[in-house]
Design brief:
Blueprint lengths: L7 E7 L3 E8 L2 E10 L9 E2 L2 E2 L2 H9 L3 E3 L9 E6 L13
Antiparallel strand pairs: 1-2, 2-3, 3-7, 4-5, 6-7
InterPro entries: ARPC2, ARPC2/4
Main location: cytoplasm
Keywords: Actin-binding, Cytoplasm, Cytoskeleton
Length: 97
Protein backbone atom coordinates (compact mmCIF):
# COMPACT_ATOMS: atom_id res chain seq x y z
CA UNK A 1 0.00 0.00 0.00
CA UNK A 2 1.25 3.49 -0.78
CA UNK A 3 0.17 4.73 2.64
CA UNK A 4 2.85 2.54 4.28
CA UNK A 5 5.67 3.68 2.02
CA UNK A 6 9.05 1.97 2.06
CA UNK A 7 12.24 2.94 0.24
CA UNK A 8 13.19 0.20 -2.20
CA UNK A 9 16.41 -0.20 -4.17
CA UNK A 10 16.99 -3.80 -5.18
CA UNK A 11 19.04 -5.60 -7.84
CA UNK A 12 18.63 -9.24 -8.86
CA UNK A 13 19.70 -11.59 -11.62
CA UNK A 14 17.49 -14.16 -13.27
CA UNK A 15 18.63 -17.22 -15.19
CA UNK A 16 20.30 -16.52 -18.54
CA UNK A 17 21.86 -13.37 -17.04
CA UNK A 18 18.77 -11.12 -17.21
CA UNK A 19 19.39 -8.38 -14.64
CA UNK A 20 16.77 -6.22 -12.93
CA UNK A 21 16.92 -3.08 -10.82
CA UNK A 22 13.81 -1.81 -9.05
CA UNK A 23 13.57 1.49 -7.17
CA UNK A 24 10.90 3.36 -5.24
CA UNK A 25 11.70 6.53 -3.32
CA UNK A 26 9.70 8.13 -0.53
CA UNK A 27 10.30 11.46 -2.31
CA UNK A 28 7.95 10.20 -5.03
CA UNK A 29 6.24 7.02 -3.71
CA UNK A 30 3.81 6.79 -6.63
CA UNK A 31 6.64 6.17 -9.10
CA UNK A 32 8.46 2.85 -9.49
CA UNK A 33 11.51 2.56 -11.74
CA UNK A 34 12.18 -0.85 -13.26
CA UNK A 35 15.33 -1.37 -15.31
CA UNK A 36 16.11 -4.54 -17.28
CA UNK A 37 19.40 -5.68 -18.79
CA UNK A 38 19.35 -8.47 -21.34
CA UNK A 39 22.21 -10.82 -22.18
CA UNK A 40 24.04 -10.45 -25.49
CA UNK A 41 21.65 -11.72 -28.17
CA UNK A 42 22.41 -14.44 -30.66
CA UNK A 43 23.48 -13.29 -34.11
CA UNK A 44 20.06 -14.08 -35.65
CA UNK A 45 18.15 -11.94 -33.11
CA UNK A 46 17.07 -8.55 -34.44
CA UNK A 47 17.72 -5.85 -31.84
CA UNK A 48 16.58 -2.24 -32.20
CA UNK A 49 17.95 0.33 -29.70
CA UNK A 50 19.19 -2.47 -27.43
CA UNK A 51 15.88 -4.37 -27.32
CA UNK A 52 14.37 -7.23 -29.34
CA UNK A 53 12.48 -6.00 -32.40
CA UNK A 54 8.91 -5.02 -31.43
CA UNK A 55 9.54 -4.85 -27.67
CA UNK A 56 8.76 -1.13 -27.31
CA UNK A 57 5.50 -1.47 -29.24
CA UNK A 58 4.50 -4.52 -27.16
CA UNK A 59 5.15 -2.64 -23.90
CA UNK A 60 3.11 0.35 -25.08
CA UNK A 61 0.25 -1.89 -26.20
CA UNK A 62 0.20 -3.87 -22.94
CA UNK A 63 0.65 -1.05 -20.42
CA UNK A 64 -0.54 2.12 -22.18
CA UNK A 65 -0.20 5.26 -20.09
CA UNK A 66 0.69 3.31 -16.94
CA UNK A 67 4.36 3.24 -17.98
CA UNK A 68 6.78 5.67 -19.52
CA UNK A 69 9.78 4.27 -21.36
CA UNK A 70 12.82 6.32 -20.35
CA UNK A 71 15.18 7.17 -23.18
CA UNK A 72 17.99 6.65 -22.61
CA UNK A 73 17.61 3.82 -20.08
CA UNK A 74 19.70 3.84 -16.91
CA UNK A 75 23.40 3.10 -17.38
CA UNK A 76 24.09 -0.60 -17.88
CA UNK A 77 20.48 -1.47 -18.77
CA UNK A 78 18.60 -2.01 -22.04
CA UNK A 79 15.25 -0.73 -20.77
CA UNK A 80 14.01 1.48 -17.93
CA UNK A 81 10.30 1.83 -17.25
CA UNK A 82 8.84 4.57 -15.09
CA UNK A 83 5.64 3.11 -13.67
CA UNK A 84 3.06 5.47 -12.20
CA UNK A 85 1.46 3.45 -9.40
CA UNK A 86 -1.27 6.03 -8.90
CA UNK A 87 -2.62 5.10 -12.36
CA UNK A 88 -3.26 1.48 -11.36
CA UNK A 89 -6.95 0.59 -11.34
CA UNK A 90 -8.53 0.51 -7.87
CA UNK A 91 -8.58 -2.92 -6.20
CA UNK A 92 -6.28 -4.38 -8.88
CA UNK A 93 -5.16 -7.86 -7.83
CA UNK A 94 -7.60 -8.24 -4.93
CA UNK A 95 -10.09 -10.51 -6.69
CA UNK A 96 -10.55 -14.08 -5.47
CA UNK A 97 -10.32 -17.06 -7.76
Amino acid sequence: SLEKGVELDHHWVEFDDVRYHIQVSMKNPHVLLLSVSLPTPSSETIFVCGLPFGAIEAIKAAYGNLVQILDPPRDGFNLTLKINLSKLPANQGTESF
